[in-house]
Amino acid sequence: MTKKHLPAFGYIGFGSVLSQIILIRECMVSFYGNELGIGICLAGWLFWTGTGSLIADRIVRTVQDKTKWFYVLLMTAPATVWIQVLLIRFAKPLLDTPAGEYISLTRLTAFSFMALGLGSPIWGMLFTFGSAMASSLRGENASGIKRVYIAETLGSVLGGLLFTFVLVSRVKAFQSISLNLMAGMVLGWNGLLGHRASGPKAPRPGWRRIPSMGIPALLMVAGLFPQLETSVDRIRWRLEGPKMTLLESRDTKYQNLSLLGLDDQVTIFSDGKPAVHIPDTENAETFAHLVMVHSDDPKRVLLIGGTVSGLVRELLKYGIDSLDCVEIDPELVRTAEPFLPDRDRTSLHDSRVRWIHQDGRAFLERTKTRYDAILLNPGIPSTVGQNRFFTLEFFRVTFRRLNPDGIVAFPFPSSADYLGEEMKRFNATIAGTFNAVFSSTLLIPGTNAIWVGSKSRKTRLCVDPDSLSRKFVRNGIPCDYFSEALYTEHLAPDRIAFVESTLRSVTDSRLNTDDSPIAYYHAMLLWNKFLKGDSRIFERLNRVSPTLFTAAVALALICIFFLNWKNPEKRVRAAMNIAMGIGGMSGMVLSLFVMMRFQIAFGSIYESVGALIAANMVGMALGSVLMPGARNRFGLAAAFAALLLLVLSLPWILKGLTPHQPIGFSFLLMTGCGAAMGALFTSINAEVMARSNRTGNAYAFDLIGSSLGALMAGSLLLPVFGFKTACITLAALLSVVSVLSFVSFWKK
Question: How far apart are CA 28 and CA 382, in angstroms?
Fold first, then answer.
């Protein structure tokens, strides 16, 4: 392989990972923003990329001028990202979904696969054509593909690092797409002109300088994109909410923030979901005074989330000595402050208020401070990131940070009159988990119900509305909306009894834990039900037995293998394809598990996703380099053993991933996952290429398997099986395919 093609091979990974990260972030804003929604988008990307590799594998052998096709595709692939991003950004208007509402899971899946299918196959075709070029230049199929794989992987590392440390905080999505397109166009034109110049009749002088002349023009166009993106956002929001006006939109380290105005109301959308309403005095007063009346003479209070909703002003009315406000994103406070009422803005700068800009859970785990009251307002547990504030582990940490008579409280979606099956299961999971830690609890029913828990085991929380009303009056707290009469309304005994008895009727409710975040799964089904989406498939997944699932998949793989038994070549090829598919699925699930655990330990993954992907790609390159390019059975056995060992040990390794560990531990884990996958790909590819010239075959099955892994990680393996059981399932399947692989070499 001549060195002149190396930059282009590296760009396959660079452009692909940059496009992938941009599209994932767009999906986070336009869709659920949770692991299932992201998994669906990632699955669509990987599926179509693998399909493109398979298509190219069929046609590359009939194409004479592979180099010309390769460089034309190199220029085309990044251009299609424009179409994909615009389709995803306008998904809600196209699907007639108003601003702030979710898209049903079935429509989300169909739309994602449609949008991503418009350009993603080209990235898979690029790898196959590039491998065919490298193989023909070197005369060795396996070693040529290995070098393209390593170059592509190193390009992915560069793309992930560039996005994380340069692009994410300095440029908008359209600018990133434009820079990616510019790189593809320059490399493509240089490659085509160099290819023509190598022919006997092609003109040589001056032609190679033409692409350089276009660079300044492309940079000038890229400079216009901030205004273009703002205009596109205004159109998008106008279509989603015709009466709303986009006031501001920005990407921070942790999220995308959009401020929309409607009459005298301002709503801040976080990743496409309404997060804060300004003003929100009525809800702030209701939450604060229904909770704080249970705390006697509070001096030190902690507020996590909801810091710009008016709660700070209400809590300061209790004569407290200090109020610690934890908000991970300082940009949220800066963005909201100009739109706050004067009294709310003043309260943020009260001398008793201490601002802590770090992850709320990480702060609680590290601090030694004890509080009289902890108020949590993290939102709905519809993502792993938000669910971590509703788990058994988090409630235990909260319990330890309370003074002996301290209280904790948080709101969550519910109903005071009727709980459907989805709502009932969701509420029962939250209730069971909270009651497992706090023996003295109080449920305040409502559309946004409130759980209050007390650390004291000697005294029960007061449920008498009259007593609480008198206490509130004695405190003499002025309010705009809240009054002592509302205690009777919110704490009506029959309403409390109805909700509590309904939740007790759920006998098979599971505890919500970090390792098995079932609450976020129930939250997704709940919102999908509200949207009249079809949840039958996802509801059935919740009842899937891990043992039966593993046995059924293993049996299907064995049947496919033995259907090809009579023909030795087909038998080996089938075994290698199955092994690569299950290996790709396992590698993707492991990587996603590490990323999810990273989110549980450290909070937002919005900024770090590029660096984590880069670490994974570094591992793939290392694993590929360590494996011999030629066929080697010992190397194949070692690759299987390494991946199997990692799968079995990961649940215990992830237990050690806490805020107390260095953040680099996560990146080391991602590198390890990548190394195991890189070694397995190189070994399997060598076996495939020793018997055929299908340059894109192993790559395609790797991606299609990864697609299944991305889809199943958030919908089945994590929320339903949990980390430990999911890893045991993967280990069983890997054991089956490794045995089939070596049985396929039997020569009789």
Answer: 12
Q: What is the torsional sign of CA 171, 172, 176, 179?
A: negative
* Token digits of residue 609: 């996703």
Q: To the nearest 5 percent, what fractions of the chain are helix, strand and coil? A: 65, 10, 25
Judge whether 314 and 303 are in contact, CB under 8 Å. Answer: no
The CATH superfamily label for domain 544-748 reads MFS general substrate transporter like domains (1.20.1250.20)
For the segment 22-45, what is each residue's pLDDT rounded down to a tens digit?
Answer: 998 888 888 766 677 788 888 999
Token representation of residue 224: 């216009």
How far the first Cα of the chain sits from its last, in Å, is 38
Angle between helices 173-197 and 6-30 (to 10 degrees): 160
Closest C-alpha among 577, 587, 555 to residue 670: 587
Nearest of 281, 489, 535, 270 to residue 386 by alpha carbon? 270
Q: How far, in Å, CA of 309 to CA of 313, rounded?
A: 9
Q: How do the domains of the chain map onto residue ranges?
A: 1-240, 276-510, 544-748
Helix, strand, or coil (residue 574): helix
CATH code matching the domain that covers 276-510, chosen among 3.40.50.150, 3.30.420.110, 3.40.228.10, 3.40.1050.10: 3.40.50.150
In contact, 140 and 115? CB cutoff 8 Å = no
Report whether 414 contacts 382 (CB < 8 A).
Answer: no
The first and second tokens of residue 82, run together, are 């424009």
Q: What is the DSSP letter of 514?
A: S
Burial (0-12, 13-18, 19+ Cβ within 10 Å), 317: middle
Token reading at 636: 């194949």
How many other CB atoms are there within 10 angstroms of residue 243's CB atom? 10
Summarised one tens digit per residue, pLDDT across range 642-685 is 999 999 999 888 877 776 666 778 888 999 999 999 999 989 98
DSSP code of residue 658: S
CA 266 – CA 569 distance, rounded (Å):
66
| SS3 (DSSP) at 301 | strand
- Strand 256-262 relative to strand 245-251, pairing: antiparallel
Structure tokens at 567: 């023909």
Q: Quote the tokens at residue 497.
A: 């009894």
- State how far the Cα of 436 lies from the Cα of 746, in Å rounded to an integer: 55
Alpha-carbon torsion (423, 425, 429, 431), positive or negative: positive
Enclosing H/E stretch for 371: strand 371-376
Structure tokens at 209: 């300088």
Q: Give the span between the Cα atoms of 588 and 590, in whole angstroms.
A: 5
One-letter amino acid at 533 equals G
pLDDT digit string, tens, across residues 164-212: 888 877 788 888 888 888 888 889 888 888 776 555 444 444 444 444 4
pLDDT value, residue 637: 92
User: In sequence order, what are the residues at sequence separation of 6 or more whose Cβ sits closer than 8 angstroms to the Cβ of residue 416?
Assistant: 445, 446, 447, 449, 495, 498, 499
Number of C-beta neighbours around residue 383 at 10 A: 27
Give every CB contact of residue 182 below 8 A, 6+ residues apart in sequence: 215, 218, 219, 222
- Per CATH, 1-240 and 544-748 having the same topology is answered yes
CATH code assigned to 1-240: 1.20.1250
State how far the Cα of 675 lies from the Cα of 57, in Å rounded to an integer. Answer: 25
CA separation for the pair 311, 201 (Å, rounded): 76
Distance CA(720)–CA(547), nearest Å, equals 13
User: Half-sphere exposure (CA, 13 Å, Cβ side) for 59?
Assistant: 14
